[in-house]
Design goal:
Helices cover about 25% and strands about 25% of the residues. It is built from eight helices and 14 strands. The protein has a seven-stranded mixed β-sheet with strand order 3-2-1-4-5-7-8, sandwiched between helices. Strands 10-11-14-13-12 form a five-stranded mixed β-sheet.
Length: about 325
């Protein structure tokens, strides 16, 4: 018998799985299937303990009408299909089965497109919305069911993703409640506001250039590109020095108290010097000071040393 109080979850990103785990206790609803990629790396212990089957597919082909992923979902007769953190086009045939929604961070209709969290942080924005949005043929043009405001502050992107998870769980629980009661009515995006569309951040986007970038921009790039999600495509910020690269994982705009300041221009890349320096910085005994184009400094408090990177590395 078809269960009309079930939903399907399509994702490969850690933060999206964590939103799902916050929904497993909702009365009257159950997640009937998780759809993910063949190479997804996530600990499914909580999801499997809840008795939820996991189906690994090729996201480019297996959600199309007639394919195995599509057939498995259609057989369940779900009331909703969630694509939180899904990076591929969802076929129209799947969207016709029931509401297909995504969770998108942005002040829609601004902030459409790829890497919205990274791009908004790089733009220096202080806050955004998490939006439950219905999928539409146009990029992020769908109507919005619900939204919640979150801060973009913090020295690393994981702090923002934590708010994305919490905010996403709250609005998704409300969405499912509204859907069960017949009150889920999406509102079209404001047509009087000009949309902005981001491109997905590329490896070259993570390159630091103190000769042309301000201290604030360097800081924002470092924190925007520091993700611990094993499935992330985002590369950490880096600064090349000769044959070596400084991989900047965390930074501040003010020198930490009692820290020894080491200038980036003083690096010696022979022998054990850079590795000792990296060890000191990671333990908080020293920070690396990078002088930016505006005359201000950025203080790198966590880093790694690697061979020099190209824009494509």
């Amino acid at each position: 018998m078809t269960d009309h109080r079930c939903f399907v979850w399509c994702t490969y990103r850690d933060w999206s799985f964590q939103v799902l785990e916050a929904l497993l206790d909702i009365e009257g609803w159950r997640c009937a299937l998780v759809v993910t990629t063949h190479d997804c790396r996530y600990d499914f212990a909580v999801i499997e303990a809840a008795g939820i089957p996991i189906k690994r597919i090729d996201p480019r082909t297996e959600l199309k009408a007639g394919a195995s992923g599509f057939a498995a979902i259609r057989e369940l007769g779900p009331s909703a299909i969630f694509h939180y953190g899904w990076s591929w086009i969802v076929p129209e045939a799947l969207c016709r089965l029931c509401p297909n929604v995504t969770l998108h961070p942005g002040k829609l209709p601004r902030d459409r497109g790829g890497s919205p969290i990274q791009n908004q942080i790089r733009n220096g924005e202080a806050w955004t919305y998490v939006n439950i949005m219905e999928l539409a043929p146009g990029l992020d043009e769908g109507p919005v069911y619900l939204r919640a405001r979150i801060s973009l502050a913090g020295d690393e992107a994981d702090a923002v993703w934590s708010r994305m998870i919490a905010g996403g769980a709250v609005v998704t629980r409300k969405f499912l409640s509204d859907l069960a009661d017949g009150r889920a009515k999406p509102e079209p995006q404001d047509a009087t506001v000009a949309p902005t569309i981001y491109k997905r951040v590329a490896p070259a986007s993570a390159r630091l250039d103190p000769a042309t970038q301000t201290a604030r921009f360097i800081y924002d790039v470092i924190r925007a590109h520091n993700e611990t999600d094993a499935n992330s495509y985002v590369r950490p910020a880096f600064l090349n020095f000769g044959t070596r690269a400084l991989i900047a994982l965390r930074a501040t705009l003010a020198p930490p108290a009692d820290a020894r300041i080491i200038s980036a221009s003083d690096f010696v890349w022979n022998g054990e010097g850079p590795f000792d320096l990296c060890y000191q910085v990671n333990n908080g005994d020293a920070v690396i000071s990078i002088a930016a184009a505006d005359g201000a400094n950025v203080f790198v408090t966590r880093c790694r040393i690697r061979p020099a990177l190209t824009n494509q590395s």
